[in-house]
Structure formats: structure tokens, C-alpha cells
Amino acid sequence: MKVAPSLLSCDFSKMGEEVIRIDKAGADWIHLDVMDGHFVPNITIGPATVKAVRPYTRLPFDVHLMIDYPLDYIDAFADAGADIITFHLEAMSDPYMTIKKIKERGIKAGVVIKPATPAEEVFPFLDSVYMVLVMTVEPGFGGQSFMADMMPKVTAIKAEAAKRGLDIPIEVDGGISDKTVAAAAAAGVDIVVSGTGVFKADDPAEAIKILKGAY
Ligand code: DX5
Ligand code: ZN
After folding, report:
1. Can you give the pTM of this predicted structure?
2. Is 178 among the residues known to form the active site?
3. 210 class by beta-carbon count within 10 Å (0-12 exposed, 13-18 middle, 19+ buried)
4. How far is residue 48's CA from residue 53's CA, in Å, rounded to a whole number?
5. Domain, as residue range, for 22
6. How many domains does the structure of the chain reveal?
């Protein structure tokens, strides 16, 4: 299992140091939550912040766009140093054009679905994406409870990909902890995002180790 700690739960007043801390603790990727106050009812960071923390680690930046019109912002996040960009299928941009644009910039593209969106919605994009992110909370805030009832969506997407001879990593985001990671692992999840579970832990290295050990 790969672990992508979400900076949403870090100390925003010293984000660079927080990135170093979580890199040293054994993170695989850094997950950056971008919210526009429109697609979700919260506002977080934009490209300037992504760019500002980029020099603090060599780990891949997994940028999760919770914004409307994601296509309009791909260049900005590419310039800021994103390695993976995921955007919501519920957002107001053409998904094919958005995937194309991300790939043109040499970045790995992923699609994300909210809890109410069925697994089948991602099927048309399986041949062109690097990854699929299945939300296990309603996007917008950290610290919510894991929705175990999303796991059948993970198995359905895995099965459809396998049917097409594809091996697409599945990421889940929201409510991941030592108590919930087993359910994700059992469903075949490859990457877990964890905000509070890692950043608010007494020992983030130990928290990451436990999550990594789940498979
Ligand atoms: C929620 C964000 C998540 C959030 C997860 O909209 O996409 O990445 O930071 O936080 P926890 O792990 O606390 O649920
Ligand atoms: Zn996220």
C-alpha cells in the first residue's frame, strides 16, 4: 500500500517544514487538496502554494483538484510542479479534454468520483487515465468518517480494468486510519490518502508504517 499524506491537516503556517517532516516519516506521495469554495464549500490552496512547497521534497505531488472548470487550471498546476493531477468527473469541464491537457503537460492524469457518483461513470476513461480516485468522504473537509460502502465501487472499477487488461492504481481519500485501512486493502486499493490520520498522529512515521503494512 502506498501512503499519500494530505497537507490539508498540516500546520499551514509552516508548510515547507511539514512537507519535510512527512517525507522523513516515510510518505510515498504528497497529497495536495485544492478547493475553490464553489465545487466544494471550502477554500484551501492554489498553484502559488503548490509552487512554494515544491522545493522541500522530491516526492511526487499528487494534486487533487476539487474545483469547477479544472481544464482552465491545468497549466497553472503543471507550472507549479504537479506530478499527478486528479480532477472530479462532476466538475464543469470536458473530461476527455482535461485528461488530454494534463497528459500534454507530461503529467499523470486521474479522475475522481464523489460518494454519490456510480463506479460506471469512470469506465469510459479507464483506457486513458493513470489512476482513479474514489472518495470515501464527501469532499471538502478533513477529519470525516470513512464510508466503507464505497468499497464495492473500488472492486467494480478494478474488475472492469482487469477485463480490459489494464492495471490501474486505485486511490481512496477520506477517513483513512489504522482502523479503516484494512477494508480498503481488502477491496484492492493501491494508495491511501490520509490527512488527520498521519499529521495529527503522535508518531507520523508509525502511522504511515501501519498504513503501508495493510494489503
Ligand atoms: C477531503 C480531502 C482529503 C482530506 C482527507 O475533501 O480530499 O484529502 O484531506 O482528510 P482525512 O484523512 O482527515 O479524512
Ligand atoms: Zn484529497
Report:
1. 0.98
2. no
3. middle
4. 9
5. 2-212
6. 1
